[in-house]
Amino acid sequence: MEGDCFCLRTYREGDLAGAANVNVVECSRLRGLVDGTDGLRYHASIPLYAHGKKLGVLNVASRDWRQLAPEDLQLLYTIGDLLGIAIERARLFDRSARLGAVEERNRLAREIHDTLVQGLTAVSLQLESADALLEAGADPDAVRQKVEQALLLTRANLEEARRSVMDLRAAPLQGRTLEEALAVLAEQADVTVDLQVTGSRPLPPRVESGLYRIAQEALTNIGRHAQATQVRLALTMTPDQVALTVEDNGRGFDPEAVLENKFGLIGMNERVRLLDGRFRLESSEGEGTRLEVVVPV
User: Fold this and answer.
1) Which end of the chain is more exposed for a tag (fewer CB within 10 A), N or C?
2) Closest CA to 55 of 28, 31, 32, 82
3) Which residues contact 15 (CB under 8 A, 6 or more apart)?
């Protein structure tokens, strides 16, 4: 608030009791309102607060000079309280909308990584294999098989992109149980996957979707980086929690030396955090990698 006047000074000092009736001509902030108003004579200044926080000043001006009665001032203070609450709610709503937009952007980033990026990675691996076979002078049928697999993956990835555009909600299970969806995921992996399921119970859709995406991300990382020949994928369900374990016999890595945005670790961590779960990653060079996620239900 610009200008300097008695009511503004008392507002900054936290006490507007003495500014209930002020000659408007003496107020630098309202002096410009005198012209064209048939001569404003006075204004009352009402502080606006919300939860003890200063928000501003409500000025009520009139052409007639008169002292406001206590009941008039009480009414204005009541209006000021309601206005302060409305302003604060509007600010909170705006802040909530901004936070919601950030959360939505993060969710979309995860979905793009979990669908398009992984799909294109699989296509790239197939084409790289075809290129390597060509350089080695391999059987054309073997090369053709890799190219056909890349085409199938490309079409599936395109369909996934279309579904994402039409419906941004993640629906990876497509009516299947989590156990059934993981079985399909294991069958489609580029490495032998031993799926172990212990226990059975209905799970909230968001838990099923989150665990499926984490398993999908982990298997993609193994196929791309681990050089593993065997993977154990375990789903254990108890009355109060569900645990997902992905363990491989690959080359491993030093978790401390891996950039935090590598291997989709940010996406997996965020998914686990949104599920109020625990995320644990163990690995060392030459010893394989073990990932464990535990989510309360």
Assistant:
1) N
2) 82
3) none
